[in-house]
């Protein structure tokens, strides 16, 4: 029997967090080997574990997978979270790319200079409420289903919930104009595997604080 997937990254959210989310939602137990120093990262590079010298890296099914998108699509397909046909997969991909764009903006916020943070936070809120969330609200309204694609839980739903919770950390109440997304958040948060991941003590990582930021800057 294959062992648990092993995740190699720093002890923080970053690009690995969506991978943690997807594995947890699929009900897959995983191990983490944290990169805590520059030497830890260099060791992985020197022993040939990192195809492009970068993390995240996930050991799964005898592979040392790199590139976040490749890892996520492999996990989604492996655990039946990637639609039933090419068209569904295309819709899942489009929705995921949208939430990835929004989450990317949020992810780099702590790394930005203090004098631009307020302006960038305002931009995140504007984009979330005018560009991204209206798309998902409309999708749920148009087809009347509980999930974004094929009336079945998929990677798109898991990614959207992660993006919603990140956006709410930026501005509580950001979903106030989106009743269907509020209901979606409530519904998906209570899926047993996801509910477990949202509990204190899970492998979900907290928002980046100054201490974590300092460690990340030293490593990378």
UniProtKB/TrEMBL annotation:
Keyword Transferase: yes
Lineage: Eukaryota, Metazoa, Chordata, Craniata, Vertebrata
Keyword Glycosyltransferase attributed: no
Family matches, as Gene3D superfamilies: 1.20.1050.10, Glutaredoxin
EC number, as in UniProt: 2.5.1.18
Family statement drawn from the similarity comment of this UniProt entry: Belongs to the GST superfamily. Alpha family.
GO terms (BP aspect): glutathione metabolic process; xenobiotic metabolic process
InterPro entries cross-referenced by the UniProt entry: Glutathione-S-Trfase_C-like, Glutathione-S-Trfase_C_sf, Glutathione_S-Trfase, Glutathione_S-Trfase_N, GST_alpha, GST_C, GST_superfamily, Thioredoxin-like_sf
SUPFAM superfamilies in alphabetical order: GST C-terminal domain-like (SSF47616), Thioredoxin-like (SSF52833)
Protein name, entry field: Glutathione S-transferase
Keywords, ordered alphabetically: Transferase
Catalyzed chemical reaction(s): RX + glutathione = an S-substituted glutathione + a halide anion + H(+)
Pfam families: GST_C, GST_N
Residues in GST C-terminal domain copies: 85-208
GO MF entries: glutathione transferase activity
Domain (GST N-terminal) ranges: 3-83
């Amino acid at each position: 029997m294959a062992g648990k997937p092993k995740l190699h990254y720093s002890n923080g959210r970053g690009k690995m967090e969506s991978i943690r989310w997807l594995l947890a939602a699929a009900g897959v137990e995983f191990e983490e080997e944290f990169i805590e120093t520059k030497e830890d990262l260099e060791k992985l590079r020197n022993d040939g574990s990192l195809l492009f010298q970068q993390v995240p890296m996930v050991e799964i099914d005898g592979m040392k997978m790199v590139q976040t998108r490749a890892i996520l699509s492999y996990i989604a397909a492996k655990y039946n979270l990637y639609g039933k046909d090419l068209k569904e997969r295309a819709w899942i991909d489009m929705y995921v790319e949208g939430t990835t764009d929004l989450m990317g903006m949020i992810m780099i916020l702590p790394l930005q200079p203090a004098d631009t943070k307020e302006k960038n936070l305002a931009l995140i809120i504007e984009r979330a409420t005018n560009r991204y969330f209206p798309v998902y609200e409309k999708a749920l309204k148009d087809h009347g289903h509980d999930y974004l694609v094929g009336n079945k839980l998929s990677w798109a739903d898991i990614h959207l919930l992660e993006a919603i919770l990140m956006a709410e950390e930026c501005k509580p109440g950001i979903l106030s104009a989106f009743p269907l997304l509020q209901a979606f958040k409530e519904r998906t948060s209570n899926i047993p595997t996801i509910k477990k991941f949202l509990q204190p003590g899970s492998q979900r990582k907290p928002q980046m604080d100054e201490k974590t930021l300092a460690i990340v800057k030293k490593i990378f």
